[in-house]
Amino acid sequence: MQDKKQEPILSARGIGLQRGGRWLFRDLNLDLHAGEFLAIVGPSGVGKTTLLSCLCGMLEPSEGSVSFKLSGTSAHKPEDLRSHFGIVYQELQLIPNADLLTNVLCGRLGRFHSISTLLGFPKKLRQEAYRLLCELGVGENPHKWAKHMSGGEKQRVAAARVLFQKPEIYFADEPASSLDAYYAGRVLGLLRQEADEKGKPVLCVLHNAEHIQRFADIALSLNQNDPKAHKMRRVRPVNEEAEI
Amino acid sequence: MSLSPTPQHEKGPALAELPWYQRLNLLNTTLLIFFLAVIFSGSQIQGNERDLDILKNLGRFLSEFFPPDLTVLKSTGSALVETVEIAILATFFAIIISLIIALGAAQTIGPTWLVFSMRMLLNIIRTIPSLIWAVIAVAAMGANALAGVAALTLYSTGYLGKFFSEAFESVDMKVARSLRGIGADPLQSFQYGIWPHAKPLIWSHCIWMLEYNIRSASIIGYVGAGGLGLQLHAYQEFHQWDRFATVLCCILIVVTVLDFLSEHIRRRIARRDGSNNALSD
Prior knowledge:
The structure holds two protein chains of two kinds. By secondary structure, chain A is an alpha/beta fold. Chain A is built from six helices and nine strands, in the order βββαββαααβαβαββ. In chain A, the strands form two sheets. Chain A has a six-stranded mixed beta sheet with strand order 5-6-7-3-8-9, sandwiched between helices. A three-stranded antiparallel beta sheet of chain A has the order 2-1-4, covered by helices on one side. Chain B is an all-alpha fold. Chain B has helices at about 25-40, 55-65, 75-105, 110-125, 130-140, 145-170, 175-180, 185-220, 230-235, 240-275. Chain B has one domain (about 75-280): MetI-like (MetI-like fold, Orthogonal Bundle), CATH 1.10.3720.10. The interface between A and B is medium-sized, with 31 and 25 residues.
């Protein structure tokens, strides 16, 4: 993994965000390399989701800049690279009146022209999406509407969608907050696997100390009292194999 | 120790009642204006100053309806089929036109200039009653069922366009935006992010419009636009009230059945759309 570290995939330089006259974070520098799993941690309301939004280009930081170096594209700015990002939103953003299978399949909409998805998705893709649903324990009712599923089931569908998308980099906002220990481990384990086997960086807002210890390489903690007092610590030594 | 009890209502601060003018909020003011309008409109309730026995006249007229002449049932049946066909085609064409117009008229989808112009267009279409549309269509296309289809298509477009645009506006755009975020193009974002939310509401409006159009299609024949209305007009002209009654009975049966079905289907759609366990029923 070390050789890949020559060039970070994500670079944030001096980013800061001001909300209602208060700085949530300032002077934040971050380099994320291929295969690294970053956990963003801190108490509720400290600005973890906001930081994640700044890093994936959904929010413009008040100061500083974020740039990317992804394979297969010359674009650097997050707003030009959104289709390469896999995002698990805190509010999930599933299509409530569409079935679970369609929700997962929508992860790959960006790869097809609208004409080819006008009448649905190819059978091969549907099968692949179904396998992912089964893997995350929601394959029992693939034709059920998402709005009729429980919170935990919806969260697993959102995880299946982002994994099905096969993005270049993952941004996940508390992807296991409504899951039991087994499925939380499964979802985070699959993200860890993406980092280990495919070298895709993962940025994940996490609360659970055990999850941070078990899955993350680096933990970035934000401080509620001092926007500049964020700390970056390496949770797992470089080259240590993940235990999934 | 002797304590004289003070009555409860004499304790504490006195309640200050609102003066009359402060009670005149929008609701009360409009109610007051309406009742004043009723009083001023009372002058319209006057007869032609002839000594008429209204009840006797009504009884004589209604007795001519009975018994209904069932010999015309066959021709009424075919006119009924034509009426339903006019309504189905008109609803279908109106749905297609309205969907296109509604995309422009929805504030969450179209640009402001387009929203304004599409809404103006829909308002103008809605202002004209179906019977006037039928007169215009008959003048342009002649007295036939096609004129009926054209008239009801235009009339329904005014309503469906408004309903559909409101259905699109009621959709939370976050999902569509998140799909755009992962690279979906505008059509995909609409198909997968907006359409599934709006579809149940839109289909519910379509069923209501179909039911409404079958009622309207029975009437527009009065001005020559095909269907049952043509028969009604002919029987009225020749004072064949027993035959007129047969047609009315047919309309009554069809509309009642449709009303029941439409209500039932729309309630099921709404329940499936809103409840958490409706799929299991």
